[in-house]
Each structure stands twice: as structure tokens, then as C-alpha cells.
From TrEMBL:
Gene that produces this protein: LOC104943251
Protein name, entry field: Dual specificity tyrosine-phosphorylation-regulated kinase 2-like
Every Protein kinase domain range: 1-135
Keywords of the record: ATP-binding, Kinase, Nucleotide-binding, Serine/threonine-protein kinase, Transferase
Entry's Gene Ontology molecular function annotations: ATP binding; protein serine/threonine kinase activity
PANTHER family: DUAL SPECIFICITY PROTEIN KINASE (PTHR24058), DUAL SPECIFICITY TYROSINE-PHOSPHORYLATION-REGULATED KINASE 2 (PTHR24058:SF51)
InterPro entries: Kinase-like_dom_sf (IPR011009), Prot_kinase_dom (IPR000719), Ser_Thr_dual-spec_kinase (IPR050494)
Pfam family, one: Pkinase
Lineage, highest ranks first: Eukaryota, Metazoa, Chordata, Craniata, Vertebrata
Gene Ontology CC annotation, any one: cytoskeleton
Species the sequence originates in: Notothenia coriiceps
Record SUPFAM superfamilies: Protein kinase-like (PK-like) (SSF56112)
PROSITE patterns linked: PROTEIN_KINASE_DOM
Domain of life: Eukaryota
Length: 210
């Protein structure tokens, strides 16, 4: 659904910056944040909205802005403020790169702009998003080196595998012999034989100090 794409754009932006993209304090301020970033909605959308007059004057000016008429008859829009005193610029005065804390990735900016399209009929759909270059961009492949001494292009042949297997077997055998020898030594030290040649446990008496 198109409305889900709007939500996706807001979520991606917040994941990037850590801050809400459109931090409106109430319904009116929320709309002013959207206008500040996206500009005024198309007239056909205003005509189709039953509550447009609550946010846009009969002359087509956003109500959150103050209007100044110059001596020559020119009308100038000035930034407004939220209830908490936050400045809300005139429609379209905030750049996407500024709202995204300096992000300059053109593919991501294009993806986000298509998610945040005023008109739901023109907004990017999920199927279109899956074909967007930002999602289909090829990232560098990780190196395929298996060991530090073998390069990416060097094939691991049968002889190399055999050598590794022999090395592992030799190491295991050596370890077994060492353990066996060590155990035998400990047995000889801890035992003595009697007159008939039978091995008897060796009792170590404590040294008495007079």
C-alpha cells in the first residue's frame, strides 16, 4: 500500500540520523513540518481535502506562516513557530540533505523522495521500491581467502588437503604419546615393587621436624 511507503521513508530516515524526520508536536505542526520539507501539496489534493481550510487559507497560503505584503503589492511568506517555539520554515525551504544531517547519497535521497510523495497515486509502490537502484546496488564482495597463506586465486588442491590432514594426524599422535609418557612417569614415581615384583602403592610420609 502507498501509505506504508510513506512510513518506510520516515523509518529509514530516523534509522540514519537517530531523529524523527517530521517532528510535529500536534496535527497542525505535523503538517507544517511536511510542507517545510516537501513544499505545498498540489491544488487537486487541497480541493479533495475536506479539512484543507483548517491549514491553508483561501488565498492558498499555509496558516502556520505569517504573510507580509510589501508596498509594491508583493506577498512574502515568513517562517512560523510551533507551540513550543520551534521554527518552521516556509514551504519547501528545508533541503533533504539538511533534514538527513548531511547525507549526500543520491540514490538514497531519490528513494526517500519517492516514498514521501504528496500524492498517493504517484507515491512509489513496494514493487517499484524493490526495483529501485538504491536497493539493487551491488556492494563489494568480501574476500574469499580461506587461509592467510593462500590467495583468492590459488585453488586448494588435493595435495594441499592431504598435507593438512597429515599435519593434523601427526599433531594428534604426538600429543597422545606425550600424554602417555607423562602418565607413565607419574605412575613410576608414585609406585614401588615388592620382593615378588608386584607393584605396590608408594606412600610418601611427611618429614618430621624435631
Amino acid at each position: 500500500m502507498p501509505i506504508d511507503m510513506w512510513s518506510l521513508g520516515c523509518i529509514l530516515s530516523e534509522l540514519l540520523t537517530g531523529y524523527p524526520l517530521l517532528p510535529g508536536e500536534d496535527e497542525s505542526d505535523q503538517l507544517s513540518c511536511i510542507m517545510e520539507l516537501l513544499g505545498m501539496p498540489a491544488q487537486k489534493l487541497l480541493d479533495a481535502s475536506k479539512r484543507a481550510k483548517n491549514f491553508v487559507s483561501s488565498k492558498g497560503f499555509p496558516r502556520y506562516c505569517t504573510v507580509t505584503t510589501l508596498p509594491d503589492g508583493t506577498t512574502v511568506l515568513n517562517a512560523g513557530r510551533s507551540r513550543r517555539g520551534k521554527v518552521r520554515g516556509t514551504p519547501g525551504s528545508k533541503e533533504f540533505s539538511t533534514a538527513l544531517k548531511g547525507c549526500d547519497d543520491p540514490l538514497f535521497l531519490d528513494f526517500l523522495k519517492q516514498c514521501l510523495e504528496w500524492d498517493p497515486a504517484l507515491r512509489m509502490t513496494p514493487s517499484q521500491a524493490l526495483r529501485h537502484p538504491w536497493l539493487r546496488r551491488r556492494l563489494p564482495k568480501p574476500p574469499t581467502t580461506m587461509t592467510a597463506g593462500i590467495s583468492d586465486k590459488t585453488p586448494v588442491g588435493k595435495s594441499a588437503i592431504t598435507s593438512i590432514s597429515k599435519l593434523a594426524a601427526t599433531t594428534t599422535s604426538s600429543t597422545t604419546v606425550s600424554v602417555s609418557s607423562s602418565s607413565k612417569t607419574r605412575t613410576n614415581l608414585a609406585a614401588i615393587t615388592d620382593a615378588n615384583g608386584n607393584i605396590q602403592p608408594r606412600t610418601v610420609l611427611p618429614k618430621l621436624v624435631s
